[in-house]
Automatic annotation (TrEMBL):
GO terms for cellular component: mitochondrial membrane. Solcar repeats lie at residues 1-55, 62-156. This is Mitoferrin-1. GO terms for biological process: iron import into the mitochondrion. Keywords: Ion transport, Iron, Iron transport, Membrane, Mitochondrion, Transmembrane, Transmembrane helix, Transport. Belongs to the mitochondrial carrier (TC 2.A.29) family. GO terms for molecular function: ferrous iron transmembrane transporter activity. It is found in: Mitochondrion membrane. It is a multi-pass membrane protein. Its main location: mitochondrion.
Length: 194
């Protein structure tokens, strides 16, 4: 559906057509590639985050800017490093006909080794890094926001979102505006009722 000139009219049309023409296994064609990509991504992500925190926040105190910066760098490095796996996964998922027919490949591409060979044939080493900029730009804010929330002394929780502890008898939706003030190592959180 996300491909240019997609032959599918809707998600359900895509699902029915793929199941009928390629079988149920087509939905899991790149599953091993996805798993193979996620393990190194997360490993690189956490190692880079911890490395950055050792450099910018060695006392491990809550400083939102240090978590934002460390998270952003960690996401960028992990995304860039695993882009070759993402390119192969995308090729397996989309089975891009124009690309495959340019190499006289008929039928369906399967398996990570075949995807790696095909990407190399299509674009050489540079082919493995197509889309690296978009992937990095996507990951930077995503991981920065995630880490500042993970490390927060006031993580968003369902109790906060229901308004518990605010003196209301009925659950209410609240927005949380965090004002983190370092006053004798204590933090202040301001709730704003919507």
């Amino acid at each position: 559906m996300q491909m240019f000139n997609s032959p599918y009219k809707s998600v359900w049309h895509c699902v029915r057509t793929v199941r009928k023409t390629e079988g149920f296994g087509a939905f899991y064609r790149s599953y091993t590639t996805q798993l193979t990509m996620n393990v190194p991504f997360q490993a690189i992500h956490f190692i880079t985050y911890e490395f950055m925190q050792e450099r910018v926040n060695p006392r491990r105190e809550y400083h939102p800017l240090s978590h934002v910066c460390s998270g952003a760098v960690a996401g960028a490095v992990a995304a860039a490093a695993t882009t070759p796996l993402d390119v192969c996964k995308t090729l397996l998922n989309t089975q891009e006909n124009t690309a495959l027919s340019s190499l006289n490949i008929t039928g369906h591409l399967s398996g990570m080794a075949n995807a790696f060979r095909t990407v190399y044939q299509l674009g050489g080493i540079a082919g493995y890094f197509r889309g690296v900029q978009a992937r990095v730009i996507y990951q930077i804010p995503s991981t920065a926001i995630a880490w500042v929330n993970i490390e927060s002394p006031f993580p968003m929780s369902s109790a906060v979102l229901r308004g518990e502890g605010l003196g209301f008898e009925e659950p209410v939706m609240v927005g949380v505006e965090m004002e983190l003030v370092d006053i004798e190592k204590k933090y202040v959180c301001t709730y704003v009722i919507i």
